[in-house]
C-alpha cells in the first residue's frame, strides 16, 4: 500500500491535496477543512513537508487536533475520514474531506470570527459575500427564481467568456451600482449563467456554462 501514498505525494499540492508538516493549531487546520468542504473536497497529508519530503507525525496528539478542528472550530461540523500510513518507518496521517452539500462551512479565526473559505489551486481563499449568498440561496427549498430584465441583459452583455471582470470593473461597464449588481450576480451564479473565479485573492466574474440559454 506504500505506493498509494507515494503516488499522492508525487502529485504535489493542488486543488484537492494539501501537505502539512504538523498540526500544532486546530484553528489553522480548520481553515483547510472549510476550504475543502466548500469546494470539491480533498485530502490533507500530515507528516509531509511542502516540498514533498516525508517527515512523519511526531505524536498521536495530532489526531486529537484534527478532531478539534472539525468539531470545535468548524461550523457546521465538517465530515472527514482519517487513516494512518507507515511509509519507510514514518507515520503519515491521511485526512479525507468530501465536498459538502451543506455549504457554507465556517472556520473560527484566532480573533473568534467565523469565516468561510474556498480552495483554489493549492491555496485557501476567503469566500466573498456574493459566494456566501449563492450557497445560501441554493439551500432554499422551492427552487430559484430569476428575473431576466434590462439589468441582467446588460451584465451578460459586458461579461467576457474568459478571464473575467472584478466587481468594480463590472459595475463601471454595466452602469449598475455595486449593491444591486451583487444581488443580481448571486442569482445568475446560482443557475450557472455567470461563473465566479478566484485569482490572486480577488473574485472575478465571467460567462458561465448556461449562458447560451439566455444570451
3D architecture notes:
The structure is a single chain. This protein is an alpha+beta fold and 215 residues long. The protein has two domains: 2-126, 2-Layer Sandwich (Methyltransferase, Cobalt-precorrin-4 Transmethylase, Domain 2), CATH 3.30.950; 129-213, Winged helix-like DNA-binding domain superfamily/Winged helix DNA-binding domain (Arc Repressor Mutant, subunit A), CATH 1.10.10.10. The chain has seven helices and ten strands. A hairpin with a 2-residue loop joins strand 7 and strand 8. It is elongated and about 65 Å long. Residues 211-215 have low confidence and may be disordered.
Number of helices: 7
Give the fraction of residues assigned to helices.
Answer: 25-40%
CATH top-level class of the largest domain:
Alpha Beta
Largest sheet: 4 strands, mixed
What would you say the CATH architecture of the largest domain is? 2-Layer Sandwich
What ranges have pLDDT less than 50 throughout 5 or more consecutive residues? Answer: 211-215
Class by alpha and beta content: alpha+beta
Q: How many domain regions?
A: 2
Distance between the termini: 51 Å
What is the fourth-level CATH superfamily of the largest domain? Schlafen, AAA domain
Radius of gyration: 20 Å
Adjacency order of strands in the biggest sheet: 1-2-5-4
Following the backbone from N to C, one meets helices and strands in this order, namely HEHEHEEEEEEHHHHEE
Percent of sequence in beta strands: 15-25%
What is the approximate shape? elongated
Number of strand segments? 10
Mean pLDDT: 90
Per the CATH scheme, the topology name of the largest domain is: Methyltransferase, Cobalt-precorrin-4 Transmethylase, Domain 2
